[in-house]
Amino acid sequence: AKDRTARETLSATSTPEAPPVSEPVMVATLPPLADWPIWHGNWFDVRYPQGFAARAGTVGCVEDERCDGVFFTSPDGKVEFYVFSPLWSGDPSPDLAIDPSTERLVEKKELVNGQITTRWSTIAAKDGSYTRSIADIMNANYGSTLRHTFGIKYKDAAAYAGWREAYLAFKESLVQYAD
Q: Which end of the chain has fewer CB within 10 Å, C or N?
Protein backbone atom coordinates (compact mmCIF):
# COMPACT_ATOMS: atom_id res chain seq x y z
CA ALA A 1 0.00 0.00 0.00
CA LYS A 2 1.06 3.52 -0.67
CA ASP A 3 2.42 5.43 2.32
CA ARG A 4 1.42 9.05 1.73
CA THR A 5 3.99 10.27 4.23
CA ALA A 6 6.51 12.49 2.50
CA ARG A 7 9.86 10.77 1.98
CA GLU A 8 11.40 14.11 1.21
CA THR A 9 10.80 17.24 -0.75
CA LEU A 10 13.04 17.33 -3.80
CA SER A 11 13.80 20.14 -6.13
CA ALA A 12 16.15 20.91 -8.94
CA THR A 13 18.13 23.93 -7.91
CA SER A 14 19.38 24.54 -11.41
CA THR A 15 17.27 26.08 -14.10
CA PRO A 16 18.14 26.68 -17.73
CA GLU A 17 20.03 29.79 -18.60
CA ALA A 18 17.60 32.61 -19.25
CA PRO A 19 17.41 33.46 -22.93
CA PRO A 20 18.22 37.06 -23.85
CA VAL A 21 15.29 39.46 -23.60
CA SER A 22 15.15 42.36 -26.03
CA GLU A 23 11.91 43.94 -24.86
CA PRO A 24 10.30 44.87 -21.52
CA VAL A 25 8.98 41.83 -19.71
CA MET A 26 5.63 41.49 -17.94
CA VAL A 27 6.29 39.29 -14.93
CA ALA A 28 3.34 37.24 -13.73
CA THR A 29 2.06 38.31 -10.32
CA LEU A 30 2.09 35.19 -8.17
CA PRO A 31 -0.22 34.48 -5.25
CA PRO A 32 1.38 32.70 -2.28
CA LEU A 33 2.39 29.11 -3.05
CA ALA A 34 -0.02 27.85 -0.38
CA ASP A 35 -2.89 29.21 -2.51
CA TRP A 36 -1.86 27.28 -5.62
CA PRO A 37 -3.86 24.17 -6.60
CA ILE A 38 -2.25 20.79 -5.87
CA TRP A 39 -1.90 18.06 -8.49
CA HIS A 40 -1.90 14.60 -6.94
CA GLY A 41 0.17 12.23 -9.09
CA ASN A 42 0.64 8.54 -8.45
CA TRP A 43 3.56 9.06 -6.05
CA PHE A 44 3.88 12.82 -5.76
CA ASP A 45 2.12 16.10 -5.17
CA VAL A 46 3.05 19.32 -6.89
CA ARG A 47 1.57 22.80 -6.76
CA TYR A 48 0.93 24.68 -9.98
CA PRO A 49 -0.12 28.27 -10.72
CA GLN A 50 -3.79 29.17 -10.62
CA GLY A 51 -5.36 29.25 -14.06
CA PHE A 52 -2.93 26.73 -15.58
CA ALA A 53 -4.58 23.80 -17.38
CA ALA A 54 -3.34 20.34 -16.35
CA ARG A 55 -2.88 17.53 -18.89
CA ALA A 56 -1.73 14.08 -17.86
CA GLY A 57 1.35 12.69 -19.54
CA THR A 58 1.50 9.19 -20.98
CA VAL A 59 3.83 7.47 -18.50
CA GLY A 60 2.69 5.33 -15.57
CA CYS A 61 -1.00 6.17 -15.79
CA VAL A 62 -3.55 4.34 -13.64
CA GLU A 63 -7.30 4.01 -13.96
CA ASP A 64 -8.14 7.31 -12.31
CA GLU A 65 -5.91 9.09 -14.86
CA ARG A 66 -3.17 9.91 -12.36
CA CYS A 67 0.17 9.55 -14.09
CA ASP A 68 3.86 9.77 -13.26
CA GLY A 69 4.14 12.80 -15.55
CA VAL A 70 1.91 15.83 -16.04
CA PHE A 71 1.96 19.03 -18.12
CA PHE A 72 0.59 22.41 -16.99
CA THR A 73 -0.14 25.10 -19.61
CA SER A 74 -0.35 28.80 -18.75
CA PRO A 75 -3.60 30.69 -19.42
CA ASP A 76 -1.90 32.65 -22.22
CA GLY A 77 -0.56 29.43 -23.80
CA LYS A 78 2.99 30.81 -23.90
CA VAL A 79 4.49 28.51 -21.24
CA GLU A 80 4.11 24.87 -20.28
CA PHE A 81 5.57 23.25 -17.14
CA TYR A 82 6.22 19.51 -16.82
CA VAL A 83 7.03 17.19 -13.95
CA PHE A 84 7.80 13.46 -13.98
CA SER A 85 8.03 11.84 -10.57
CA PRO A 86 7.59 8.06 -10.48
CA LEU A 87 7.76 5.85 -7.41
CA TRP A 88 11.48 5.23 -7.96
CA SER A 89 13.00 5.44 -11.41
CA GLY A 90 11.05 5.13 -14.65
CA ASP A 91 11.54 6.84 -17.98
CA PRO A 92 9.93 10.14 -19.02
CA SER A 93 11.02 9.71 -22.67
CA PRO A 94 7.52 9.06 -24.04
CA ASP A 95 6.47 12.51 -22.79
CA LEU A 96 9.67 14.38 -23.67
CA ALA A 97 11.29 12.69 -26.68
CA ILE A 98 12.66 14.95 -29.38
CA ASP A 99 10.65 14.87 -32.60
CA PRO A 100 13.46 15.02 -35.22
CA SER A 101 11.05 16.19 -37.91
CA THR A 102 10.13 19.38 -35.99
CA GLU A 103 12.76 19.82 -33.25
CA ARG A 104 16.52 20.00 -32.79
CA LEU A 105 18.77 19.48 -29.78
CA VAL A 106 20.42 22.81 -28.96
CA GLU A 107 22.43 21.85 -25.89
CA LYS A 108 22.98 18.93 -23.55
CA LYS A 109 24.92 18.99 -20.26
CA GLU A 110 25.52 16.52 -17.44
CA LEU A 111 26.74 17.02 -13.90
CA VAL A 112 27.63 14.17 -11.54
CA ASN A 113 27.80 15.15 -7.89
CA GLY A 114 28.38 12.05 -5.78
CA GLN A 115 25.33 9.84 -6.21
CA ILE A 116 23.26 12.53 -7.95
CA THR A 117 23.36 12.89 -11.74
CA THR A 118 21.62 15.83 -13.38
CA ARG A 119 21.18 16.06 -17.14
CA TRP A 120 20.00 19.27 -18.79
CA SER A 121 18.72 19.43 -22.35
CA THR A 122 17.57 22.37 -24.42
CA ILE A 123 15.44 21.61 -27.46
CA ALA A 124 14.14 24.12 -29.99
CA ALA A 125 11.43 23.94 -32.61
CA LYS A 126 13.00 24.09 -36.07
CA ASP A 127 10.53 26.83 -37.01
CA GLY A 128 11.54 28.90 -33.94
CA SER A 129 8.06 28.75 -32.37
CA TYR A 130 9.22 27.45 -28.96
CA THR A 131 12.10 26.17 -26.84
CA ARG A 132 12.00 23.36 -24.27
CA SER A 133 14.41 23.03 -21.35
CA ILE A 134 14.54 19.79 -19.36
CA ALA A 135 16.30 18.91 -16.10
CA ASP A 136 16.45 15.16 -15.40
CA ILE A 137 17.69 14.32 -11.87
CA MET A 138 18.68 10.80 -10.79
CA ASN A 139 19.61 10.23 -7.15
CA ALA A 140 21.20 6.87 -6.21
CA ASN A 141 21.52 7.72 -2.49
CA TYR A 142 18.64 5.43 -1.56
CA GLY A 143 20.02 2.03 -2.60
CA SER A 144 18.12 2.27 -5.87
CA THR A 145 17.72 5.23 -8.17
CA LEU A 146 15.14 7.89 -7.39
CA ARG A 147 14.29 10.01 -10.43
CA HIS A 148 12.38 13.17 -11.13
CA THR A 149 12.32 15.38 -14.20
CA PHE A 150 11.22 18.95 -14.77
CA GLY A 151 10.58 20.74 -18.04
CA ILE A 152 9.54 24.14 -19.26
CA LYS A 153 8.41 24.94 -22.80
CA TYR A 154 8.22 28.61 -23.74
CA LYS A 155 7.29 30.59 -26.86
CA ASP A 156 10.03 33.21 -26.49
CA ALA A 157 12.44 34.87 -24.07
CA ALA A 158 9.78 37.24 -22.75
CA ALA A 159 7.46 34.33 -21.90
CA TYR A 160 10.31 32.52 -20.15
CA ALA A 161 11.25 35.61 -18.15
CA GLY A 162 7.63 36.35 -17.26
CA TRP A 163 6.95 32.86 -15.89
CA ARG A 164 10.42 31.98 -14.54
CA GLU A 165 9.61 32.68 -10.87
CA ALA A 166 6.45 30.58 -11.11
CA TYR A 167 8.44 27.74 -12.68
CA LEU A 168 11.02 27.84 -9.87
CA ALA A 169 8.22 27.78 -7.25
CA PHE A 170 6.57 24.88 -9.12
CA LYS A 171 9.81 22.88 -8.98
CA GLU A 172 10.33 23.66 -5.30
CA SER A 173 6.81 22.46 -4.47
CA LEU A 174 7.37 18.84 -5.55
CA VAL A 175 6.84 16.32 -2.76
CA GLN A 176 7.62 12.66 -3.56
CA TYR A 177 6.16 9.74 -1.61
CA ALA A 178 7.37 6.22 -0.82
CA ASP A 179 5.58 2.90 -0.99
A: N
Are the C-beta atoms of residues 67 and 123 closer than 8 Å to each other? no
Question: Is there a contact between 133 and 120 (Cβ–Cβ < 8 Å)?
Answer: yes
The SS3 of residue 77 is coil
Closest CA to 151 of 27, 15, 10: 15
Burial class (CB in 10 A: 0-12, 13-18, 19+), 65: exposed
The pLDDT assigned to 7 comes to 32
Of 178 and 108, the structure prediction assigns the larger pLDDT to: 108
* DSSP three-state, residue 103: strand
Starting from the edge strand earliest in sequence, which strands make up the sheet with 53-56, in order?
A: 53-56, 69-73, 79-84, 146-154, 131-139, 116-125, 103-113
CA distance 134 to 34: 25
Per residue in 2-30, pLDDT (tens digit) is 333 333 333 333 444 545 444 444 445 67
17 or 178: which leads in pLDDT: 178
